[in-house]
Amino acid sequence: MNKIQILDCTLRDGGYCNEWRFGFENAKRITAGLVEANVEIIECGFISNRVDYKPELTKFSTIEEISRIIPCNREGRIFVAMINYGEYSIDDLPICDGSSVDGIRVAFHKSNLMEALEFCKAIKAKGYLVFVQAMVSLNYSDDEFLKLIQTTNEFDPYAFYIVDSFGMMKEKDLTRLFYMVEHNLNDNIWIGFHSHNNMQLAYSNAQSLVNVRTSRNLIIDSSIMGMGRGAGNLNTELFVDYLNENAGKNYQIKPLLTIIDKILGTFYEEKYWGYSLPNYISASHNAHPEYAGYLDAKKTLTFEDMSNIFDMMDNDKKVAYDKSYIEELYLKYQEKDRTQESHLTEFREMISGKTALIIAPGQSSVVEREKIISCAEKEDVVTISINYDYDENFTDFIFLSNLRRYQDLPAIKRVKSIVTSNIPAIDVYLQVRYKDLLNEADYVEDNAGLMLIGLLINCNVKKVYIAGMDGYSPNPDENYADNKMKFYTEKGLAEKKNLGINEILKKYRKKIDIEMLTTPKYVIID
Length: 526
What we know:
Blueprint: E1 4-8, H1 10-13, H2 24-36, E2 41-47, E3 59-60, H3 63-67, E4 78-84, E5 103-108, H4 113-125, E6 129-134, H5 142-153, E7 159-163, H6 171-184, E8 190-194, H7 202-211, E9 218-222, H8 236-246, H9 254-270, H10 277-284, H11 289-298, H12 303-312, H13 323-334, H14 344-351, E10 355-359, H15 364-367, H16 369-376, E11 381-386, E12 397-400, H17 403-408, E13 417-420, E14 430-432, H18 448-458, E15 463-467, H19 491-509, E16 513-516
Parallel strand pairs: 1-2, 1-9, 2-3, 2-4, 4-5, 5-6, 6-7, 7-8, 8-9, 10-11, 10-15, 11-12, 12-13, 13-14, 15-16
Helix pairs in contact: 2-9, 6-7, 10-11, 10-12, 18-19
């Protein structure tokens, strides 16, 4: 029977969920727990010339740093680290002397294939076990994949991987690639499989591979609790249990559950990983999952819109995440030229020289409602709610830049709506150009409240009172007065959004008198 080994990549792939901040002691506990669980191959993290070593991170700048989290008693386990091709100089890699990692995994894109394989050869020459990780295996044609296998045979690495980088591989795809590898790869080279779970297929695909009739030695990658970018990876604790029952293995489950209970559960609460519609959409388009994460974080798009943006992508841009590229596509998609400006002159004349009260949907709009009512009742005040109808009894207009919020608005209330041109709207009071109201602050360039203030400045409003613009909290229960509007925002992203709002409000205050009517939690303009 073929040999099957598990390679646990929690400390490396799982690091996408917590910026590799496992903590030094936690990293040691995880490696020790994996040894106790009888996991054969343990990945300790990335090694890169682009980082400065910090003990709490599992990103390392030298091989010696990695040795600090490897247990003294290795009990025959293989310890490895990953290098993204181009991020580490072969000159900085010492000869393998058994004091740190035993092997190096080299991840590379098809565009760097030949150079990366030469790099792999040089690593092997220094005495390390080499794992060839050609990312996104499905992006290779059959001829290209065969050429990759044949070139790999020339230097006999320890393992050659089939890599499902975007979690879109079906069983038939995996089987086809496996037989290509099995029939053409040197017999002594292990065949590895690295999967992601965007389509919930990691577990079933791993089972299918194990059940293939073959004499080849297999390595299956997994992470504890499935910890990994986007939808995560194959769960170590689940798959080793399957192997115990079906492949005669003797993994210990308890140490893995202890790691979940004592360490990983906290990270999961802080940043969820697992199946989601955005991750499904990215997988169905064979695209990097961070693109889906970027679009989802906007909270302005329907899933149909997200899919349309993926359709706009060049295939060669889908493989590696490019933040500037997805920002450009997002803005291009939103910058539609649908306008209905017949009432623009009327609106400008109505509010010019007056005071505007804008009401965002933060919790202070309910807590301090009496202040809002008192202000709205003044004669020279025009009241505009943002992305929802605060109170039809005294709001004059509703400003919407978010298609989701527009679709939630009853049709009868759209007649007093001012919408941006990214929304396919009819029978609204006014539709203005989306791109004219953007600002230059990252993460909030199309924030609805800031867009409305920009419009009001252009219409010569004398003063703006702001209510309910409280800023963003990582606790979704703290963000909105209406629970139907709440969504989860990661702590780091929430902080960046708040900084951006503060920056633009201070800029706008130089052009117009702005006053906070209600008390915000995270927005500070004084």
